[in-house]
Prior knowledge:
Elements: H1 4-7, E1 9-19, E2 25-35, E3 45-49, H2 62-65, E4 81-86, H3 109-123, E5 131-135, H4 137-148, E6 156-159, H5 168-182, H6 197-210, H7 213-219, H8 223-240, H9 243-251, E7 269-274, H10 284-290, E8 297-302, H11 317-330
Parallel strand pairs: 3-4, 3-5, 5-6, 6-7, 7-8
Antiparallel strand pairs: 1-2, 2-4
Amino acid sequence: MTAWNELADSRKLQLPAFAFTSGGRGSVKLHCRTLGTLNNAGDNAVLLLHGTTGSSLQFLKSETADFLFGQGQPLDQNDYFVIMPDAIGHGESSKPSDELGESFPQYSYSDIVAAQHAIVHDLFGIDRLRLVLGTSMGGMQTWMWGIRYPKMMDALMPIACLPERLSGINLLFRRLMLAMIRSDPQYADSELSPPSHGVGLAWNLFQLMINSQARLAEDFKDPDRADRHIWQIVKEAESTQKAVDVIWEFNASCDYDPGSDLENIEAPLLSVNFSDDVINSPQFDVLNHDIQRVRYGRAVTIDAGGKAQGHQTLAHAEVWGQYVGELLTETSSPPTTQLFSKE
Length: 343
């Protein structure tokens, strides 16, 4: 099995005076990983955007990479230059727990997108992307890329997300997570440690958000097993997550509201969702309406059957990888094909 993390190159970019939309300004370190080589024409670059709490390593795990980057696969590393940034607040990019704690400016999705653009344009000198693809938070930022930089890409593929301001169950889950962390006496505003039980309990709620309800019903049939699982997640979260980082990560969606600007998207866009994704499914009808406002837009909802993992199906490219290849094929010439026809 290919060790994709070992094949990826690591690059960093320092922005000495990054202006946050919240009003703060400061030095920001940006990190990304890449696969493949930028060709002489500079037209084979693909941008992959990860989800909340994740990093560029998300795309290098076997369940994703093995179905995207190998020979003959949709994003064959021999054909494409794949750029995978760590969003501000995530991975090896600047985040509150590095040293500033709660003095770190509250970043927004707009800030993350601006930083991603800096990596593409300033670090690599790229003016045109073959594809922008993102999952969950990265998918929401893919919608934002299409609106903010409408002439900069040949195609867009947001996965497991909707072009609507967060509301309903998705919003309530997020606010409850933040309340759990902040109400924990172990969480001290001025300190980055000790570990917070609130983070552990919030992480349990996060797992409920993103997992398949059918699988949960199969896995947990008695209280003892459920209790063991809860405290295992608490222990794992306490050892891997910093409370201040989690709060900033989930607050970052505060400015996400692309609904009024969908007509500004010029590139062909294929929106991919999963039928058992609990946090998005109540609004699939909204998506079917919104996609009509995207000139070259199409939406598909996948029933993954035995491979269904709820929202987390986004990590299993075996389920959705074929649509990447389809989108690249259909956008290899001007987007006049039946795939994007509104007739």
